[in-house]
């Protein structure tokens, strides 16, 4: 039987890599730049995942979000490389999928140049056919489906040939809007119990399950 899945799309933060320390540092740098006290890890954790503009509107209220985003990004580019690490099983997984001939892409709410730099530093860039951010689709961050739809267009695949792997309910909402299956892994900011409330198509225990699960799909009657 022909393998029905030709492409796998990934979120970045919390799915492929742990970059939370860099996000914490840049959020608190931005807050102090505008005279606010630093936030706790849990306070920041509760706001991450829905794009930088929304994050800035919450963590530096009453400040021009464009100014806040500029300060955040200037700081973030100085710390992201040293404060980001691949999550367990990611390198082996994406390398295996690449060798199997699957098309791989990243759809992240980070600026695309940041994600491109990080996957270069983390030495996984050669395995990906496309990397997208909101700036590729008129700043339409997830859960808007524009990024996912553009990724499928670039990879020349149909929704029925695509699976998305993420770690948050924003990923689930995005894929529902795009009309593609979504698998989640509780390696980011939300637990499996929390993610189950949003009814993803599958919850993986870890990234190490992805390749075996896709293999089962390929042989299913």
Question: Which helices and strands, and how do they pair?
Answer:
Elements: E1 7-10, E2 17-18, H1 20-33, H2 41-45, H3 52-59, H4 65-79, E3 85-86, H5 90-99, E4 103-107, H6 112-121, E5 130-132, H7 146-155, E6 162-166, H8 169-178, E7 182-184, H9 192-196, E8 202-203, H10 210-219
Parallel strand pairs: 1-4, 1-6, 4-5, 6-7, 7-8
Antiparallel strand pairs: 2-3
Describe, in plain words, how this protein is organized in 3D.
This protein is of the alpha/beta class and 221 residues long. The protein has 2 domains: 7-18 and 86-219, 3-Layer(aba) Sandwich (Rossmann fold), CATH 3.40.50; 20-79, Orthogonal Bundle (DNA polymerase, domain 1), CATH 1.10.150. Helices cover 44% and strands 12% of the residues. It has helices at residues 20-33, 41-45, 52-59, 65-79, 90-99, 112-121, 146-155, 169-178, 192-196, 210-219; strands at 7-10, 17-18, 85-86, 103-107, 130-132, 162-166, 182-184, 202-203. Helix 8 (169-178) links the parallel strand 6 (162-166) and strand 7 (182-184). The chain is globular. It starts with 6 loop residues before the first strand and ends with a helix. The mean pLDDT is 93. It comes from Tuwongella immobilis. InterPro entries: HAD-like_hydrolase_sf, HAD-like_sf, HAD-SF_hydro_IA, HAD-SF_hydro_IIIA, HAD_2, HAD_sf, PGP-like_dom2.
């Amino acid at each position: 039987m022909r393998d029905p899945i030709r492409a796998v799309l990934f979120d970045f933060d919390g799915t492929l890599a742990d970059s939370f320390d860099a996000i914490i540092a840049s959020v608190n740098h931005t807050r102090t730049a505008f005279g606010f006290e630093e936030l706790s890890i849990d306070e920041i954790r509760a706001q991450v995942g829905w794009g930088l503009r929304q994050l800035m509107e919450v963590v530096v209220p009453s400040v021009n979000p464009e100014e806040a985003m500029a300060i955040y990004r200037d700081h973030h580019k100085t710390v992201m490389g040293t404060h980001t690490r691949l999550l367990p099983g990611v390198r082996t997984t994406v390398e295996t999928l690449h060798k199997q001939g699957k098309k791989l892409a990243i759809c992240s709410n980070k600026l695309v140049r940041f994600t491109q730099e990080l996957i270069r530093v983390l030495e996984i860039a050669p395995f990906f056919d496309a990397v997208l951010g909101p700036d590729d689709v008129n700043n339409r961050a997830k859960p808007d489906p524009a990024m996912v739809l553009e990724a499928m267009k670039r990879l020349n695949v149909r929704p029925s040939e695509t699976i998305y792997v993420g770690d948050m309910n924003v990923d689930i909402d995005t894929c529902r809007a795009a009309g593609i299956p979504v698998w989640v892994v509780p390696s980011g900011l939300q637990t499996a119990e929390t993610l189950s409330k949003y009814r993803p198509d599958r919850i993986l225990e870890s990234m190490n399950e992805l390749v075996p699960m896709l293999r089962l799909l390929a042989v299913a009657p």
